[in-house]
Design goal:
The chain has about 400 residues and is mainly alpha-helical. About 45% of the residues lie in helices and about 5% in strands. The protein has a three-stranded parallel β-sheet, with helices on both faces. It is elongated, with a radius of gyration of 29 Å. InterPro entries: P-loop_NTPase.
């Protein structure tokens, strides 16, 4: 038998991406495929499938970060061991058509009851499920895509509910949105016969790559043989516990990693950054606002940073301004012109810059605000109210 490395094909001259073909598809290959007995492998002293994975992990000139296996349906004698025995992460791809419900439901149930050959502290682990819903029709009608999304989320929610009684009591619940990703139909992907170099073509698959990257250990996570009783006092002495979310950590800037997603968020043609709860939007805000490599103007901020930027209005502040609009003969249009300019002035001033004072008619309420020992939300509201009461304030706003 040839060494495994002689069967491997490198797919890219740029990236470290390799493929291990299943064989040469000819008549003899089809005949030999019929003779395979995967169930018999588990009765042998040396399981050939386990030996293959060990060879990929230990007997190559390099050490793969990840081994991706196509288990197809996952419910055939040949593909089931790949999914239920060897996988750490099972990405279940389906389209939310009623015809797919029964089969996918059975597959998910089987995964929840599976125990892979990998174990931790003597306990065999269950493959972690993730769900890829694709291809979602590339319809311009939002209600079409929304219908398929909601149906898929409902299915996954029902499947996850079946697993709750098997999890530890102190384990946090799994939200469907955390383990499901949607990819719309892309003709360039469907018709391609090679690895595409255009990043835009596979940008929608980046969340899947993030799922996989979480299983790649860093050097600091690699275990070494040590005596725990000997090192326990040293570990406890060096431990430093931080409270709160990531963006509130004292070592935030030393730990923050500038990823490609972060770079895209800074692009000048991206006026708005959207993301699900817990995806790091507040951390990105702090990185931009407090980083010394950006000139940032803070107009609005998350509630947790409002003490740091006292000119930022809360919901009560906006409500107080709205009650004054009738008497001021002004509205939201004039408010945002004045408020944005005022926030820019105070933001620059907070970073030891010295912005020039505005037109004389706007200067008095501004001087009254900055002369206070500390800027408060009430003071900002009073300043805005005085400015908005000035005649022709819409024309004067550009002078602030």
């Amino acid at each position: 038998m040839l060494p495994i490395v002689q069967h491997i094909i490198r797919l890219s001259e740029v990236d470290e991406l390799y493929c291990l073909p299943a064989g040469i598809p000819n008549a003899d290959y089809a005949r030999r495929l019929r003779l395979l007995d995967p169930e018999g492998w588990y009765r042998e002293e040396l399981n050939p499938l386990h030996a293959l994975l060990e060879g990929l992990s230990e007997k190559l000139p390099f050490r793969p970060d990840l081994v991706l296996m196509d288990a197809r349906t996952g419910i055939t004698p040949l593909s089931a061991p790949l999914l239920f025995d060897l996988s750490d992460l099972a990405i279940i791809t389906f389209f939310p058509h009623p015809q797919a419900l029964t089969g996918t439901h059975a597959l998910v149930q089987a995964i929840f009851h599976a125990h892979s050959w990998r174990n931790r502290d003597g306990q065999r682990l269950t493959p972690e499920p993730r769900f890829l819903v694709s291809p979602i029709p590339a319809s311009r009608a939002p209600e079409v895509q929304q219908r398929y999304r909601l149906r898929a989320i409902e299915w996954v929610s029902n499947w996850l509910a079946l697993m709750e009684n098997r999890r530890q009591q102190d384990a946090s619940s799994i939200e469907p949105e955390e383990v499901i990703h949607f990819v719309s139909y892309q003709e360039s992907i469907a018709t391609s016969d090679r690895i595409l170099t255009d990043k835009e073509a596979w940008r929608s698959y980046e969340p899947i790559a993030e799922w996989l990257e979480r299983f790649i250990p860093t050097k600091s996570e690699e275990r070494v043989p040590i005596s725990l009783p000997e090192v326990k006092p040293l570990i406890l002495k060096d431990l430093e516990f931080s409270a709160g979310t990531a963006e509130q950590q004292t070592d935030f800037f030393s730990m923050f990693v500038n990823t490609e997603v972060f770079s895209r968020a800074l692009a000048r043609d991206k006026p708005l950054v959207l993301g699900r709860k817990g995806t790091g939007k507040t951390a990105v805000f702090r990185r931009i606002a407090e980083g010394d490599d950006y000139n940032s103007i803070i107009v609005l901020s998350p509630a947790s940073f409002r003490d740091q930027y006292p000119w930022v209005l809360s919901a009560e502040g906006f409500q107080a301004m709205e009650t004054h609009f009738g008497a001021l003969q002004a509205g939201w249009r004039e408010f945002w012109m004045i408020y944005t300019s005022l926030a820019a002035f105070l933001s620059l001033r907070s970073t030891a810059q010295n912005p020039s004072l505005p037109d004389e008619r706007l200067r008095l309420p501004l001087e009254q605000l900055i002369s206070q020992s500390s800027i408060t939300e009430l003071g900002v509201v009073d300043c805005l109210r005085h400015m908005l009461s000035i005649p022709q304030i819409g024309l004067l706003a550009g002078c602030l």
